[in-house]
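# nightly structure sweep
# worker-07 picked up a monomer target from the shared queue
# config: single-sequence mode, recycle default, output format = structure tokens
# input follows
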Amino acid sequence: MACTARPSRSWSASTARRPITGVALLGGLGSTLGWPLTAYLEQRFGWRGACFAWAALHVGLCLPLAAWIVPHVVGQQHHAKGRAAEPVIWDRRMVQLAVLFSCAWFISTAMSSHLPRLLAAFGLTPARAATTAALVGVAAVSVRFAEFTVMRRFSPLIATRVATLMHPLGAACLLTLGAKGASLMALGHGAGSGMTTVAKGVLPLHLYGPANYAYRSALLSRPAQLVQIGGPALYGFALAESPRMALALSAGLCLVMFSMTFGLERRLQPQKEEAAA
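# output follows
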């Protein structure tokens, strides 16, 4: 069946924001269930047993589900009617987005690996730290639900700026209050991470439109994928040296992300501007 190209405005960030948020909504439950379950498995079977249990779940459940659910399609290049597809150029805004997402994924993987250990360094028992870390998922699901219902009225750029400040606010509470601020740290990180996940899908569409959206998103993801490989190890070294230094590292990267959100205003006619350049 032939598909007719829709105008650029019909697939704007406002129309795609709800489906993207819906897909990400339940993903936050992973840490809500994962941290307490990992702590239980580690206590019952040791850390090796916990690792083997998660590996078995990936191979035995996730892999068959992916093979069954993910459709097998032949990719094809989208061309707007009467016009060849515009090339994807690494302009200033692309670089800013790449830096923003790279920092976000560094922090996300670092916290996924070390948040209970970080909280324990500020006075929580290992069991209490794992339970508190589960609040990350609660916060992520909550803000994604808010994004799905209320926050979609706001610009995705504003939402992204707010998201970049959530982790530093939680870090400030943890540094100031110690163990009493652990819950606020987990909630702050979870809220920021949940909103940033949505922004990863929405911002490129908001700034550049639907043309070459998938390819552009893949290009923007490549630096983040490379950075997150070393994120847990680097953050682990910082945490071993000083928990406060580790918090300063992650909070400082969030402030870098905040600075990257400026100068990203949308161009109303990107094709004409690029042609003129």
